[in-house]
Give the backbone structure.
Amino acid sequence: MLSLGAAACGGDDDDNASGTGGSDSTEAGATGSGGSAEPSAAGDLDPNGTFRFAYSVGPSSFDPAKASSSFDNVALFLTYDRLVHLSPEGEGVPGLAESWEFSADGKSLTMHLRSGVKFHDGTPFDAAAAKANLERNKAGTSVGDLAPVGSIDVVDPMTIKLNFVAPGGAIPLILSDRAGAMVSPKAMSDPGLDLKPVGAGMYKVTNYQKDAKITYERNPDYWDPDAVGAQTFELVILPDNVAAFNAIQSHQVDSGLIVPSQVGEAESAGLEITEGPTLAVFHLQLNRSKPYLDDTRVRRAISMAIDRQALLDGIGLGRGAITLQHFPPGYWAHDDSLNEDEIPFDPEGAKALLKEAGVPDGQQYSVIVPTTNVYPQLAEAVKDMLADVGINLKLVPTDPVQTAPVFYVQSQGDMLVSVWGGRHDPAQTLSLLFTKGPIQNPGGQTTPEVTDLIAKASAPGTIEERTPAIHAAVDQVVKEELNPTLYFPTGLFASWPNVKGLHIYTSAKPEFRGVGVTAD
């Protein structure tokens, strides 16, 4: 993240959600034809070329109904298409659904599906397949994302209708996440699906060396051939920042994530830097069911003990932004009018709040820390800052792939230092992190005010119509300091000059549509 190559860690943003980009595809009556088109391949790409990309974590599962981290999307979306796709700016654009519209009362969403599409095993894609996938995903790790969907009707062979039991304004962009990924119906019952994916996407998986390398080959029947920029795509898994950078620099791979400290050396080596903002944010996620963490005063004290500017300058080398909000400055869900100075960096004030709340001096909490990227550095820095106000952190190094299952599913640890990868609709991020049901909120702690405001923020509408409700929910989350942010890192890729079509996606997960290499 990418300064954050970090983002690729299977970190803290586990599934059930999406929340990245303010797309008008969420508005009532909007169709999927709006917004920016997805990138397409440049005309000078080598059609027989191999594109190799270094990423810091492999998928927790190749089954989208079982995958437990949003960073799994990088591997999954090369082979699985979704009902809705994303532009790099985070707008919803047509995928396997060509268009969609909400009902006048906002209680249902009708989607018109793309005809002539086949899964990699030859099974036709149709409304029955879409319904089967959505029902399967609703019972899997996307249960929180799809909670507003009560039932799914097959209107005709190429049309489905999603009926809501709760506000569903975020559903179109949710369906651009794993919740909308389509698996061949014939493969759904295959216990080996999580190792041998069968989708309808740009590439077919031909070789999977878990946590090492995934090899994909072009799908010759893909409905959007210009999006398939290479004959062969290799996703090389390199969790160590130095090893990944060395692989790029030695041209063992063509491109990959880097961290800010590597930018100067990359430029000196003749590599090209792709940089841009994303919705991914480093944060200290709290299990608010643990002792004292359900107290707003304690959470505020923890936040006031953190010197965010020092973290950004020292670890991010100034590439990024700081805010108490879970959306970065410049993004529509960020409330510019919110007075964040009410929760300043103030260690002495933090000590006073902890004393008022009855927290004993030396109170200890265990913190899950992914062992890749800058997470260990961040955790050590936060540990020192909290020690200054009387809170002791015991850091628990954890394999990046296991971070989400350990913290979210097994409820180990009191806190997590990692990255929230962002979601395709802001209401999705708010719902996943701060309402009771989703696994991304371990312990399930929330408040009636937050729950009510997030429900209002999830109603259909244009960006302009939804902004006041989104801001109200954001403001309440900050007021209660439910989840202290650290900083928003800048997305960074380094590539050789023959790489074309690579973009920073607001979602923080590159999708590689139209990406390839020119002939030597």
Residues 281-489 form a domain with the Dipeptide-binding Protein; domain 3 fold (CATH 3.10.105.10). The chain has 13 helices and 21 strands. The mean pLDDT is 90. The first helix runs from residue 73 to 76.
